[in-house]
Specification:
The chain has about 350 residues and is an alpha/beta fold. The protein has 16 helices and nine strands. The strands form two sheets. A six-stranded parallel sheet has the order 6-5-4-7-8-9, with helices on both faces. Strands 1-2-3 form a three-stranded parallel sheet. It comes from Phtheirospermum japonicum.
């Protein structure tokens, strides 16, 4: 088996000579799997078996710190104990950052490069702080009945300048120096915004940052994130996620349920600004989306779920991706179109229906 983490064409090009020898390819997300199958189709590569999906998981250490049941819990460190410790950690870290209770902290943690969209995030924050788009008029009308009710409790007295943006990871070897300089020039040109931006170095102690945050932003551009482990980590800590409607992010984040999605590129910057304002002004929406996201992690993205998926991918040749049901049709969690495309890549062959 080969568990593939990348969704870039150059990685595919390096591996294509051996893809037809691998017994089973495993991908992180459906969008990544479809992209690789498209490339296999273009290159006339026939795979030995149907790929499987095995998403990443929240590791036990972070689940433990988030107050989610894990192998690290003991009678002295129950989930209730850890939830209380998380609240204490939040207060301590926010105090160290100079934040007060009224401040909304939006966090994004990744290498600093154009593909991660930090500059567009800064543009969104500037639009919100300097322009102040109206939540009531421009956002609520675009949501369904459930989300309009959830999002309607808007606090019009909230100061938009109370939003703080924490960007990491400073010092990462993956950072693009020229891009970092571009961010700094942008902040120099917008002094009001620069007062609202915080930086954090690369660290493995991310639990304290998630605990201090109110919102997580996943603003990856292009093909988007292959999966985005930080997305599910943030959800484990009860954070709503503002993410691009692309790649693995759109598969993890349920729009209006566990967070809000926005388009790629500059068109998405204005919508992200509105979404930031919306969550700044509506604490109940933040809490409700955070609860839903945490519940999703507990159901789908813990280590035990990842191991279970690996077991299925090893012993079940269809691995739940395009599994025929009793009628010979694709199961509800699969795509008939995807199955047809895979059949073409496999040279027209398919496993017999059950």
């Amino acid at each position: 088996m080969w568990w593939i983490m990348e969704n870039r064409r150059e990685y595919f090009n390096r591996t294509k000579p051996v893809l037809n020898r691998v017994k089973k390819l495993i991908f992180l997300s459906e969008s990544q799997s479809k992209q690789w199958l498209d490339w296999c189709d273009e290159e006339n590569i026939e795979l030995k078996s149907e790929p499987a999906l095995v998403p990443l998981s929240v590791n036990d250490e972070l689940a433990f710190a988030a107050g989610i049941s894990s192998s690290l819990n003991t009678p002295s460190f129950t989930t209730e104990n850890m939830l209380e410790k998380r609240r204490s950690l939040r207060n301590a870290v926010r105090k160290e950052m100079g934040l007060n209770d009224a401040d909304l902290l939006a966090v994004t943690l990744s290498s600093i490069n154009p593909g991660k969209g930090q500059l567009l995030l800064l543009e969104s924050a500037r639009l919100m702080i300097e322009s102040g788009p109206s939540v009531k008029d421009s956002i609520l009308m675009d949501h369904d009945y459930y989300s309009r009710n959830l999002l309607s409790a808007v606090d019009g007295k909230k100061d938009l300048k109370s939003v703080k943006v924490l960007i990491g990871s400073v010092g990462s070897k993956s950072n693009k120096v020229l891009y970092v300089k571009t961010l700094l020039r942008y902040l120099s040109a917008h002094s009001n915004l620069s007062k609202s931006v915080l930086w954090t170095p690369a660290t493995t102690r991310v639990a304290s940052l998630y605990a201090a945050a109110d919102v997580y932003v996943m603003n990856s551009q292009g093909l988007g994130e292959t999966f985005g482990r930080v997305t599910i980590e943030a959800m484990a800590f009860g954070l709503p996620v503002l993410g691009t409607d692309s790649g693995g992010t759109k598969e993890i984040v349920e729009h209006n349920v566990t967070g809000l999605l926005h388009p790629l590129g500059r068109p998405g910057a204005r919508i992200l600004a509105k979404n930031l304002e919306l969550l700044l002004r509506n604490a109940s929406a933040r809490v409700e989306m955070g609860i839903r996201g945490r519940e999703k992690v507990e159901k789908m993205y813990l280590k035990k779920h990842m191991f279970q998926k690996f077991g299925e991918s090893k012993y079940d040749p269809w691995a739940g991706l395009v599994k025929p049901n009793g009628s010979g049709q694709a199961a509800p969690n699969s795509s008939g179109d995807f199955s047809a495309r895979f059949s073409k890549i496999m040279g027209g062959s398919r496993a017999p229906s059950a």
